[in-house]
Amino acid sequence: MRSESEQPESDNPFTIPVATRVLRLPPYLFGKINALKHKKRVAGVDVIDLGMGNPTDPPDPMIIEKLTEAVADPRNHRYSVSTGVENLRREVGKRYWKRYGVRIDPNDEVVACIGSKEGFSHLCLALMGPGDTAIVPAPSFPVHVYAVALASGNVIALDVRDPEQFLANIDYTCTHLYPKPKLVIVNFPHNPSATVIEQDFYVELVRLAKKHGFLVISDFAYADICFEGYQAPSFLATPGAFEVGVEFTTMSKGYSMAGWRIGFCAGNAEMCRALATIKGYYDYGIFQPVQIAAIVAMRNCDAAVESIAEEYHRRRDVLCDGLERLGWEIERPRAGMFIWAKIPEPWAQMGSIDFAMKLLDEVGVAVSPGRGFGEEGEGYLRMAIVENEQRLRQAVRQIGRCMKQEVEQP
Ligand SMILES: Cc1ncc(COP(=O)(O)O)c(C=O)c1O
């Protein structure tokens, strides 16, 4: 605490020299819109928040009950194991077997993480260093870029929206860049663009990984949220995948456990070991009751996961129907929690950041401007379908009002 006599000397300020790894982070383009959202809320505005993929529904009651029971057990308050308790890792293996026919050794090929974001970032730190390059999907989920930058690596962002072209560009980049990229990050169903792929994509990716010698990290955060019979394939279900890479899954989305902070890295044993080594220095693992409740969730809550996916499906249709009625051209996503919406003219000319600010400022609807996901995102908004159907209908009405005002202005 600063004492009253201790006033800062303005003519000779003491500077805090933060590390270069912090200074070289790209600018955070959601800062302006987050600040306005906060201001609106403080002023009492009921913001309809489609900004972040942060589920608003609670997890299945059985999961909460198990957590409560485990919290009451005095044995569960000590430091846990950094890589996750054995029964949890085993449950992840069982789930991969049941859903994707993939056999995983829970001892060497699974690491539990404090959310997949933590695991992903620390794995980048374990794999990347100065002079190393990673290929990341563009438009980019910011963490995919930041984690590589924080690990002192360089980023090449390749447009992911045409998956075949994405593969061809990976091949081209690896052929012509020296030294070759060390890591390729993939994320299907993709955030933010909602691009999906079939298993043959991964067959080609594994072939390219072996040809060029790069490692693969698959971020499979939206594995559980698929619509109309589409089943998102697992990278690990591809022959040869375990030789070249790992996959991250999470309890945040399909189980609505985002705040609980629990996810998993599975696949190549050496990459898992590298992640476990880094984590061993940084953390003491996830609170044990959370791990115990996660085991129960994976064992017993398939029906709850299905019903969460159905809910997102209904919300998708409510929001897409509404935007189409307003004249937006919408491609309905087959998976994930986001509508990647092309901004209609003349509003697209404003730029996605200004248009998102306008929607928030004038009608209290918060969305993420596409530009926040890199240059490839300009001209788009990302809308998270995390509010209920009634609130989404309200959001459409308010967006319509905002657009009408604009048209009616002389
Ligand atoms: C693509 C992607 N990966 C990872 C995460 C983070 O998930 P977790 O809550 O497991 O850290 C998100 C969350 O928004 C995401 O969209």
UniProtKB/TrEMBL annotation:
**Any GO MF annotation of the entry:** pyridoxal phosphate binding
Keyword DNA damage appears in the UniProt entry: no
Q: Residue ranges of the Aminotransferase class I/classII large domain?
A: 46-399
Task: Report the cofactors.
Answer: pyridoxal 5'-phosphate
Which keywords does UniProt give here? Answer: Aminotransferase, Pyridoxal phosphate, Pyruvate, Transferase
Looking at the keywords, is Manganese present? no
E.C. number(s) listed in UniProt: 2.6.1.2
This protein's source sits in the domain of life called Bacteria
- Family, per entry: Belongs to the class-II pyridoxal-phosphate-dependent aminotransferase family.
Could you tell me what this protein is called?
Answer: Glutamate-pyruvate aminotransferase AlaC
Task: Name its species.
Answer: Symmachiella macrocystis
Report which gene this protein is encoded by. Answer: alaC
